[in-house]
Write a structure and sequence with these properties.
The chain is an all-alpha fold and about 140 residues long. The protein has four helices and no strands.
């Protein structure tokens, strides 16, 4: 099958892109749902713990940075011959790393009741948005 400019187009390419886009949207929306949960549910017994907040913030930042490093390394692997499978694996792992950063914020909210726990969600969501699938 050819596109309008004469290039060959793979029939499965569009379906793979749509699947990647759906995964990306779902992961972004789940982070938004964490924010909704944080607004609706008040922690039962919050204990201030600035050390925990700082440690998890560092971990969250490291997870977002690692998501880009891991994605790049997975895409560079040559032992997985199927390019679509390699791309899918890289997408899922990168998005999960960013999701974990957002989940750190949810944990901080329920453990400490820190009013700025949304910072973790912003960090995770920014990573997810930067992993927007390209055609």
């Amino acid at each position: 099958m050819q596109t309008g400019d004469g290039r060959l187009k793979s029939p499965g390419g569009e379906a793979q892109y749509r699947a990647r886009l759906i995964l990306w949207v779902v992961m972004a929306l789940s982070t938004v749902m964490y924010f909704v949960v944080m607004r609706l549910v008040t922690p039962a017994n919050p204990n201030e713990n600035p050390t925990l907040v700082t440690a998890l913030l560092i971990v969250a930042f490291a997870l977002v940075v690692a998501s880009f490093v891991v994605e790049r390394r997975l895409l560079a692997r040559k032992d997985i011959v199927d390019v679509a499978a390699r791309r899918r694996q890289a997408d899922i792992i990168a998005l999960v790393f960013c999701e974990a950063a957002a989940l750190d914020g949810l944990a901080v909210w329920f453990i400490t009741g820190w009013s700025r726990s949304y910072v973790f969600l912003v960090l995770g969501l920014a990573g997810i948005l930067l992993h927007h699938p390209k055609r």
